[in-house]
Amino acid sequence: MRPNKACPVVLSSSLPAKILLFRHPQAGVQLVKGTIEKGETPATAALRELAEESGIANARVIQDLGCWDAGHLGQVWSFHLCQVEDALPEHWSHQTQDDHGHTFVFFWAYLDELPYSDCHPVFQRALAHLCETLESNLRTH
């Protein structure tokens, strides 16, 4: 499976773990995700997308969480667990330079209280897959 989308995953350092999500002004709650450019590795694309969509520029990939077939428009997502060097606020807004200059509102959600009803079905499936992957990783480490 060759990925064409990169998805950086940022978890809180506090327990119970929370995941970073954002509200798109027209498309509901989402994970950061974007196209892997020609010649770019999925991990590099994940960090670029994180910076473009959230303003977080001081992150690094700490684990490859594998690929997932989204079953939507031929998208195969590559998930990358990212660690951010500085503490992040509970919520913030970031105006993108791409995606029509939308303002995205970022927030943290507990993994066992995800806002599925506010997500497009593809993001509902992506979050469910990601929770299974994270849970599996915790059991094996």
Automatic annotation (TrEMBL):
Cofactor: Mg(2+)
Pfam families cross-referenced by the UniProt entry: NUDIX
CDD domains noted in UniProt: NUDIX_Hydrolase
Domain of life: Bacteria
UniProt domain Nudix hydrolase: residue ranges: 1-131
GO MF terms, alphabetically ordered: hydrolase activity
Signal sequence annotation: none
Keywords: Hydrolase
Protein name as it appears in the record: NUDIX domain-containing protein
Species annotation: Pseudomonas monteilii
